[in-house]
């Protein structure tokens, strides 16, 4: 064929065949990120093992490649009922991680964490607003002191104001937590909860 389909533009240049391996590597990493659950660093290192050293100058930095991989990873979403997928409802040890879930509150903890909390004399409560997504009002946490370190054991995402959220959380605990609940009510809320 001796005909041009379009006239040359000011951007026209000869093909750069030395960039082909870098483009192929990035495409392979993107596909791998979508279809596997491998960590970002594993995907990057696996892909770089087979990459020709002669074309290494065409690659972006490792940080840029890792960011590109993370952008391709699939994000777990809630199902049609608004519940978390089964994969996010278990710990790595396959222990249930959701104690309670309804339209006002989600409590994340395990039975092991609750037993540790019950065994400890010192509990610490915290609530924060800035780290929550727009769907939630507050993240409330319960911590216990273990071997001179304070460890978070219970996380609760609250949909509503703190008083309503506190009522929902304390209803999930039995009477062993009365001292903490009394302290929390007096210090943070300023009123005594009716039993």
How many helices in DSSP terms?
6
Provide the structure class: alpha+beta
As for the number of domains, it is: 2
Largest sheet report:
5 strands, antiparallel
Strand order of the largest sheet: 1-2-5-4-3
Relative strand content: 15-25%
| Unreliable spans | none
Shape: elongated
Using only CA atoms, what is the Rg? 26 Å
Order of helices and strands: HHHEEHEEEHH
- List how many beta strands DSSP finds: 5
Distance between the termini: 88 Å
The percent range for helix content is: 25-40%
Write down the overall mean pLDDT. Answer: 76
Fold blueprint:
Blueprint: H1 20-35, H2 40-49, H3 62-72, E1 98-101, E2 105-108, H4 111-119, E3 123-128, E4 138-146, E5 149-158, H5 162-171, H6 178-189
Antiparallel strand pairs: 1-2, 2-5, 3-4, 4-5
Description:
The chain has 195 residues and is α+β, with helices and mostly antiparallel strands. It folds into two domains: 54 residues, no CATH class; 103 residues, no CATH class. It has a five-stranded antiparallel β-sheet with strand order 1-2-5-4-3, covered by helices on one side. β4 and β5 form a beta hairpin. α2 crosses α3. The chain starts with 19 loop residues before the first helix and ends in a 6-residue tail after the last helix.
């Amino acid at each position: 064929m001796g005909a041009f389909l379009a006239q040359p533009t000011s951007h026209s240049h000869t093909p750069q065949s030395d960039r082909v391996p870098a483009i192929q590597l990035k495409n392979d990493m993107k596909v791998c990120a979508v279809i596997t659950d491998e960590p970002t660093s594993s995907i990057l290192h696996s892909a770089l093992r087979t990459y020709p050293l002669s074309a290494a100058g065409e690659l972006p930095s490792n940080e840029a490649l890792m960011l590109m991989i993370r952008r391709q990873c699939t994000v777990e979403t809630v199902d049609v009922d608004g519940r978390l997928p089964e994969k996010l409802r278990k710990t790595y040890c396959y222990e249930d991680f959701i104690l309670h879930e309804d339209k006002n509150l989600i409590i994340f903890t395990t039975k092991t964490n609750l037993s540790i909390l019950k065994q400890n004399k010192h509990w610490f409560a915290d609530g924060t607003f800035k780290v929550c997504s727009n769907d939630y009002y507050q993240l409330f946490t319960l911590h216990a002191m273990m071997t001179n370190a304070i460890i978070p054991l219970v996380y609760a995402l609250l949909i509503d104001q703190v008083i309503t959220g506190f009522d929902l959380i304390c209803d999930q605990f039995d009477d062993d937590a009365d001292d903490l609940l009394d302290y929390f009510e007096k210090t943070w809320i300023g009123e005594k909860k009716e039993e």
